[in-house]
Amino acid sequence: MQLTNFLAAVAVFLPIVYGAPTQAANSLHPEILAAMKRDLGLDAEQAHVRVARELKATEVIEQLKTKAGFGGAWLVDGELNVAVTDEALTSEVTAAGAKPITVSNSLSKLEEAKEALDKIDLPQTLSKSANEAGIATWYVDVTANKLVIEALSASTSQAADLAKQVGLVESEFEVRTVSELPSTFATVRGGDAYYINNSARCSVGFSVTTGFVSAGHCGSTGARATTSSGVSIGTFAGSVFPGSGDFSFIRSVSGNTYSGTVNNYAGGSIAISGSTASGVGASICRSGSTTGVYCGTVRALGVTVNYSQGAVTGMTQTNVCAEPGDSGGSWYSGSQAQGVTSGGSGNCNSGGTTFFQPVNEILSTYGLTLVRG
Ligand SMILES: *[C@@H]1O[C@H](CO)[C@@H](O)[C@H](O)[C@H]1NC(C)=O
Ligand SMILES: *[C@@H]1O[C@H](CO)[C@@H](O)[C@H](O)[C@H]1NC(C)=O
């Protein structure tokens, strides 16, 4: 009966404004219908009605938006609402089958303020200053008849200052708090660089189904992990160093891909197929974001390493070199994951000794599952 209601409504106002109904709404592809059923709960008939109605609404908006006093338009359950700042437009809106809503802020003023904000280099100047600071979005919200700025909590007063800077008064803007800055998505892979709290660099160890593992000295619980381009790839959910190990678990951020591979620093990736630990004398390689790939052999298992921060137990000693920034990176024998880089001595010019944290202890401590490539 929704269809009947809709057709009745069309019959009343269609001849006044639109002319003949368009064909498009009658030809929704079965896959689109299935997705609309899944995501919007609409059956085929409801989907066709909805789309036809929205097409009509677009035509009405096109016609009204050039008129003086037009304040924006939006749909509420298929009904077209049109904001008007001039009462003279009310009857025209009603005649077009839409609902007029009287508002006070001029749409053009809000749009001009928004364009002025576009010219200020906001994301760069604000989001890098601190982890909790940043402006996420700004737009004219026609339903609120305001310019909306979305910001992290530490930046809400800056957001309000910016709105005033572009000429708006309190009644013309609204600052909304969001918990996370938006970003593009990344692929996380063993051996790749990541940054902690936007400063120090480490390397990814291995992807797990809920994020990735790395070294504990790379970050404390709560620290933020990002790619070199600033894409958020997780938050440290657990971190141990020194003491019983040097490991961390960084919980994933949705939208990213956590790949079961390791960067081979030769233009490709190595697929990881398990985590069977190698014994003393076994060949072993590692990938890290400072020096790339180096290989050698396992020298000792269960080593206690006395770092200046304190002793760490359960390390594996190798004769493979590493350097700062390689920390947290992947160790593997063939396609078997072995561990994450902890520390050592020497460097990759003169050679060195490096200790790694065995990966299986990290997986069992946090109940994680390795992603296989
Ligand atoms: C990073 O930020 C978190 C949360 O603000 C903090 O606990 C941590 O000490 C910072 N630094 C490192 C290296 O983890
Ligand atoms: C461990 O290292 C610290 C600092 O490097 C040092 O002060 C301490 O004496 C060492 N422990 C032992 C048992 O030598």
TrEMBL record:
Gene3D superfamilies: 3.30.300.50, Trypsin-like serine proteases (2.40.10.10)
Pfam families given in the database record: Pro_Al_protease
Disulphide linkage map: 202-218, 285-295, 321-348
Protein origin, superkingdom: Eukaryota
GO biological process, one term: proteolysis
Domain Peptidase S1A alpha-lytic prodomain: 105-168
Single GO MF descriptor: serine-type endopeptidase activity
Active-site residues (renumbered): 217, 246, 327
Signal sequence segment: 1-19
Cellular compartments per GO CC: extracellular region
Record carries keyword Hydrolase: yes
Keywords: Disulfide bond, Hydrolase, Protease, Serine protease, Signal, Zymogen
Protein name: Peptidase alpha-lytic pro domain protein
Natural source organism: Periconia macrospinosa
Origin organism lineage: Eukaryota, Fungi, Dikarya, Ascomycota, Pezizomycotina
